[in-house]
Amino acid sequence: MPALLKALPCWKSNTLRELRKSHFAHVINYLKAYRLAVALLLNFGETSLKVR
């Protein structure tokens, strides 16, 4: 199965001014638990796009 199809959608609709370390830790835990390599953590509360 292609890796693209192994994605696990996890939606949480909060708009924040900034993402905190705890948000990144939460995503890392999902990646490890589901053996995924890539995640998108999106925050629509920022005024511009930030990539980490």
Task: Characterize the structure shown.
InterPro entries: GxxExxY (IPR026350). This protein is an all-alpha fold. It has a domain at 16-46. The protein is 25% helix and 0% strand. The longest helix has 13 residues, at 21-33. The radius of gyration is 12 Å and the shape is elongated. The model has no long low-confidence stretch (mean pLDDT 76).
As a percent range, the share of helical residues equals: 25-40%
| Low-pLDDT residue intervals, each spanning 5 or more residues | none
From the helix content, strand content and strand pairing, which structural class follows? mainly alpha
- What is the string of helix and strand elements? H
Largest sheet: none
Coarse morphology:
elongated
- Straight-line N-to-C gap: 28 Å
Radius of gyration: 12 Å
List keywords for this structure.
single chain, 52 residues, mainly alpha
Produce the secondary structure layout.
Layout: H1 21-33
Summarize the structure.
This protein has 52 residues and is mostly helical. The chain has a domain of 31 residues. Helices cover 25% and strands 0% of the residues.
